[in-house]
Amino acid sequence: MRVEPVALPLAEPLDTARGTMTERRGFLVTVERDGATGVGEATPLPGWTESHDDCRAALERAGDAGSDADALAACEGAPAARHAVSLAFADAAARACGVPLYRYLAGGGSGDVAEETTTSAPDERVERLPVNATVGDADPATTADRVREAVSAGFEAVKLKVGARSLDADAARVAAAREAAPDVALRVDANGAWTPDDARRALDAFDASADVAYAEQPLAAPSLDAHAALRGRAPIALDESVAAVGLDAVLSADAADVVVLKPMALGGVDRTVAAGRRARRAGVEPVVTTTFDGVYARTAAVHAAAALAPLPACGLATGDALARDHAPDPAPVRDGRIVVPQGKGNGVAGPHDE
Ligand SMILES: [Mg+2]
């Protein structure tokens, strides 16, 4: 197993709860199995995953492990490290089998998925997946312009950030977005900014002017019962809660209509597919998104979503967030849909193809 530190500059600085980021640092993991090379990516994002140092330490332990199972076990508690190691194994195995990664994942090709009931046919070809456009946070006129641009580029779902402005200002932005695009699926993401009282008022105001497809993470991550109580006002999607308390706690509390699954935070694409199936059995729709990762992890997230297809528009169109990448992007977005690579493994050109 080879572990290489990497850093990718962001196209624009990204504000997170832990400060402003200007680059995505992480590790590439390369393995050789059955005559095939597999590449995995760990792009830790503190707040969602372990720290960069803890990720490196876990990858060192994995590199010293005597078996693949021990290497994965060495990454427990370090989801970004486990993401890299499990992806490298799955990429190599899918290449050795001559199938795209999503077919390998859908067929229960790795440990965590094999424990789950297979619900999608592994033979089914998935060509493209709907993705959402990110409209961000801007004044009503700019928001309306961005929504119109997204719709004319073919996107059927757009996502607005809310919660940073007053409730009245957010309500005006959401109303402007709806006026600009009567049919688009409108999603709002508050990233846990609201109190329960704020959330009730905001969702009622949005409901009066715009039918929102869902409100993502209205309240702080641990508030499961309070999220459950909001579900009558608008469909509720939980993102930070899944990373903070785990999918099973979210499902048992009946806290969500939709769960946002981030492979880097869940510890791998195998676990993401298993989590998506578990959610669906509980009547909750999964959506797969990235954590502003490099091309190996981003494309793997596309495969995880394809293994769960059909599913609602996913947050997979994030390649533009990087100023530079490890390799060309094999999953371009066309007409609001991301292309699922059909070559062997993850489908990213790299050391395998030399
Ligand atoms: Mg979110």
Task: Give a verbal description of the structure.
The chain is an alpha/beta fold. The chain folds into two domains: 2-98, Enolase-like, domain 1, CATH 3.30.390; 128-353, Enolase-like C-terminal domain (TIM Barrel, Alpha-Beta Barrel). 39% of the residues lie in helices and 21% in strands. It is built from 14 helices and 13 strands. The protein has helices at residues 52-64, 68-73, 79-97, 101-106, 111-114, 140-152, 167-180, 196-209, 224-230, 240-245, 247-252, 263-266, 269-281, 295-308; strands at residues 2-16, 19-33, 36-42, 128-130, 133-136, 157-161, 185-189, 212-216, 236-238, 258-261, 285-288, 333-334, 337-339. Strands 5-6-7-8-9-10-11 form a seven-stranded parallel beta sheet. Strands 1-2-3 form a three-stranded antiparallel beta sheet. The protein has a three-stranded antiparallel beta sheet with strand order 4-13-12, covered by helices on one side. A hairpin with a 2-residue loop joins strand 1 and strand 2 (19-33). Helix 1 crosses helix 3 and helix 6 packs parallel to helix 7. The radius of gyration is 20 Å and the shape is globular. The chain starts with a strand and ends in a 15-residue tail after the last strand. Residues 111-119 have low confidence and may be disordered. The structure holds magnesium ion (MG). Magnesium ion (MG) binds next to loops. Magnesium ion binds next to loops.
